[in-house]
Design brief:
- Helix content is 47%, strand content 16%.
- With 200 residues, it is α+β, with helices and mostly antiparallel strands.
- The protein has two domains: 5-134, Arc Repressor Mutant, subunit A; 160-199.
- It has a six-stranded antiparallel sheet with strand order 1-9-2-3-4-5, with no helix packed on it. The chain has a three-stranded antiparallel sheet with strand order 6-8-7.
- A hairpin with a 2-residue loop joins β2 (27-30) and β3.
- The longest helix has 39 residues, at 157-195.
- The radius of gyration is 33 Å and the shape is rod-shaped.
- The termini are far apart.
């Protein structure tokens, strides 16, 4: 049985064969991110990430050239037809910055996209390619502190149930106390009326 998983790109492979593998695979995975190229959708875990249009195209170009410097000129040619009149430099900068925001990283501490001064950008992550969807890893259980924070948050459903139960319990106890006071007062009045003739 042959594996449908195409191994992560080896920097020693010919660049043409790297690009061929990257262009054939429907699914791409790097870090916690998964790309379904047919749907043109990026996921982090099971949640969709808003990476669309030119931002999505930049991501694919960088991954296809993983480990290589992608020049600003190459990005310009990949993103805009030759007859398009835009401020390419500003648009490339904006598009790459939007991609970084979507991936949750900064220029100071790049995890996936490194700026190569005066040249362009490089994808420094390790991407894997597959013809079939990657299996989703089980989400790590939150730590004790995180569980406490979640349980204490107003949005936590268990917390809402506990708060509701506590309110009902408090109301029942107050009702029982009031009932006891009223019954006690009534019993005292009855006793005084029947057993203390001086009050007649």
């Amino acid at each position: 049985m042959t594996s449908s998983l195409i191994p992560s790109l080896d920097p020693l492979m010919e660049n043409d064969s790297l690009q061929e593998i990257a262009s054939l695979a429907r699914y791409v995975r790097f870090g916690p991110f998964h790309i379904d190229r047919q749907r043109q959708q990026v996921y982090r875990g099971g949640s969709k990430v808003r990476v669309q249009g030119k931002v999505y195209q930049v991501l694919l170009v960088l991954i296809r050239n993983q480990g290589e410097v992608v020049t600003r000129e190459q990005l310009k040619q990949a993103l805009w037809p030759a007859d398009t009149h835009v401020n390419y430099d500003a648009n490339v900068n904006t598009t790459v910055n939007k991609l970084r925001q979507a991936l949750g990283e900064s220029t100071e501490r790049p995890t996936y996209i490194e700026t190569i001064p005066r040249r362009g950008y490089s994808f420094i992550g390790s991407a894997e390619f597959s013809a079939v969807p990657f299996s989703q890893p089980a989400e790590a259980a939150p730590s004790g502190d995180a569980q406490k924070a979640v349980a204490g948050s107003p949005a936590a459903s268990d917390g809402q149930t506990d708060d509701g139960s506590k309110k009902w319990l408090t109301l029942v106890i107050l009702a029982l106390i009031l009932t006891g006071i009223l019954l006690g007062a009534g019993a005292a009045a009855l006793w005084i009326t029947h057993f203390n003739p001086q009050l007649h």
